[in-house]
Each structure stands twice: as C-alpha cells, then as structure tokens.
Amino acid sequence: MKTIYMAVMARLKDQVPELKWIDLDTGQLDVKTDRPAVLFPCALIGIAVRPKRNITDTIQECDAVITVRLAFDPKTNRSNGEATEEVRAKSLALYDTIADVYAALQGYSTDNFDSLCRTEQGKENSVNGYFQYKIVLKAGYEDNTADK
Questions:
Q1: For residue 115, which of 125, 105, 123 has the smallest C-alpha distance?
Q2: Long-range CB contacts (< 8 A, 24+ apart) of 120-128?
Q3: Fewer CB in a 10 Å sphere around the end CB: N or C, the chain?
C-alpha cells in the first residue's frame, strides 16, 4: 500500500500543481475545529485492499481501492446567482481542479499496479463547512508481502 500511496502522491504533485497539500488521509477533515491541519485546496489519499484470489499460499491478486478526498476553502466560493460572472468563474475553478485530479489518475499505472480506473465520484458532506469532493479509483496488483 505504501508503494501505491507514494506513486499516487507523486503523480498528483507533478500533474496538479494547484493542490497545495497532498497527504495520507488520517481524518484531518473529520475533526470539528476552526481549521483542519491542511492547506487548501488539498488532496487526502486513502487506500483499501480487496483480495480477489490466491495465486499461492503467500501471494494474492488484489484490487487497491484508492480514495482521493479533495477539500476547498468555502470562503473562496461565491458561486451564487448574485455574484458577478468573473467571481463565479473563479469560485467554480474548483471543478477544474477536480477534473485535473481525475485526468491525472485515470489510466495511470506503474510497474507495481495496473491502470487506475474511476469507480465513483461525488460531493461529500463536511463537518466544517468545507467543500469536499471524493474520487474513488481501483487498480489491480499482485500482493506478495507475505512471500518473504
């Protein structure tokens, strides 16, 4: 999982320069504080493993499920109908960042995992009032961790 995390983090850092904070998702956005310990916009990466089948007693074919949680400061979001077109366009630029994250990761692969494929995407509720958005991707890989 560490290898997948490092690759996804490096890819986002390289391909989506508008992200100011990329980190492992440890619940930073779920704490009711004045301000989470991140810079906005941020991408928080979580990884789960879904074993598919045993290849040997110590090697499994698995799917990695990568969740990228994006968060944006709502103070910069003035997209209402009363805002000027220029202000509204600037506020809605968060959708450009979301699209850039998807474009950077969809189809991305390394020697350690197959091509990433988006399986889910949508807005999340926030305990802090931040605009949060989630992109879930899946990639197959061979887990030989126990084969040592």
A1: 105
A2: 124/69, 126/29, 126/71, 127/29, 127/30, 127/31, 127/32, 128/29, 128/32, 128/33, 128/35, 128/36
A3: C
What pTM was computed for the model?
A: 0.91
Name, in order, each residue with C-beta under 8 angstroms of 91's C-beta and a sequence gap of 6 or more.
76, 77, 78, 79, 83
Place of tokens 């809605």: 92
The pLDDT tens digits for 88-136 are 777 788 999 999 999 999 999 999 999 999 999 999 998 888 899 999 9
Q: What total number of domains does the chain contain?
A: 1
Residue 89: count of CB within 10 angstroms of its CB: 12
CATH (domain of 32) = 3.30.2000.10
Judge whether 148 lies within some domain. no
For 1-32, how does the pLDDT look when each residue is reduced to its tens digit (9 = 90+)? Answer: 999 999 999 999 999 999 999 999 999 988 87
Q: Does 10 fall in a domain?
A: yes
Q: Is residue 89 part of a domain?
A: yes
Structure tokens at 110: 């390394």
Q: Which of 45-54, 61-70, 125-134 has the lowest mean pLDDT?
A: 125-134
Residues of the domain holding 99 = 2-142
